[in-house]
Design a protein that fits this description.
- The protein is α/β, with parallel strands linked by helices.
- Helix content is 31%, strand content 20%.
- The chain has helices spanning 37-41, 51-60, 81-90, 104-112, 130-134, 141-152, 173-180, 208-219; strands at residues 2-3, 6-10, 19-23, 49-50, 67-71, 94-99, 118-122, 158-164, 187-191, 225-228.
- The strands form two sheets. An eight-stranded mixed beta sheet has the order 2-3-5-6-7-8-9-10. The chain has a two-stranded antiparallel sheet with strand order 1-4.
- α4 runs parallel beside α6 (141-152) and α7 (173-180) packs parallel to α8 (208-219).
- It starts with a strand and ends with a strand.
């Protein structure tokens, strides 16, 4: 397993736990508003962190960190993801996975083997607008829907989340998103923030009032719908 970055301590990435975040390279989507274009397009341009280095770091941080968050890029593309998670769990760490849900067979296997303690799945847009939000000519939406159902029915803590972007989303479509995700444990709306690492220039975030309207629409179907990181 190769990583392309570690956030050594975070209080935000794994709710309720002091954690470290590990970044994998590569992705099967090309979301134009992606904040990690370097990891997606040119992961080998980033400093490599080998599996042994990552595990040595975790050994040294035992008693300080409670968990790890594995994010990307898209972690489920990594063939040795399960192996790394097992070793991290053997060291006593809780494991949170961030995923776009496009490889439900991998997610299902990790859940069935009891390797995950928390999953956060990005919901890019409503079904009708999904391909455009993913930056792809077409999307096999059935794969996304399989992952949604897996997490709706999982006994572990799970969340769905959407980054709201002007030019990608409308306020009205969050009624459709909420209806789709009904039965989910939690749903969070994050506002887009521009940066040098964004895949495509020209996007902006929404005003807080519009974000609150989005949240209210989703909350009709998912009571635990909230804004995250919005002042």
């Amino acid at each position: 397993m190769i990583f392309y970055g570690i956030n050594k301590t975070t209080l935000l990435d794994y709710p309720g736990h002091v954690a470290a975040t590990f970044f994998t390279g590569g992705c099967n989507m090309r979301c134009p508003f992606c904040q990690n274009s370097g990891l997606v397009l040119e992961p080998r341009s980033q400093p490599e962190i080998r599996e042994r280095q990552a595990l040595d770091f975790l050994k040294k941080r035992k008693g300080i960190l409670e968990g790890i968050c594995i994010t990307g890029g898209e972690p489920t593309l990594q063939p040795d993801l399960g192996q790394f998670i097992r070793q991290a769990r053997e060291l006593g760490y809780l494991v949170k996975l961030d995923t776009n849900g496009y490889r439900p067979q991998v997610l299902r296997r990790l859940l069935e083997e009891g390797l995950l303690d928390y999953v956060a799945m990005d919901i890019k847009a409503s079904r009708e607008r999904y391909a455009a939000a993913c930056g792809l000519p077409q999307v096999e939406l059935d794969l996304i829907e399989q992952s949604v159902e897996l997490l709706k029915n999982s006994p572990i803590p799970c969340e769905f989340r959407t980054t709201a972007v002007k030019g990608i989303h409308t306020v009205e479509e969050f009624t459709s998103i909420g209806r789709w995700l009904q039965g989910g444990k939690a749903y969070f709306l994050q506002n887009f923030r521009d940066s040098e690492q964004v895949m495509q220039c020209g996007f902006s975030g929404f005003e807080k009032e519009r974000l609150e309207e989005m949240r209210e629409r989703a909350a009709v179907y998912i009571p635990r719908a909230a804004l995250r990181g919005v002042d």
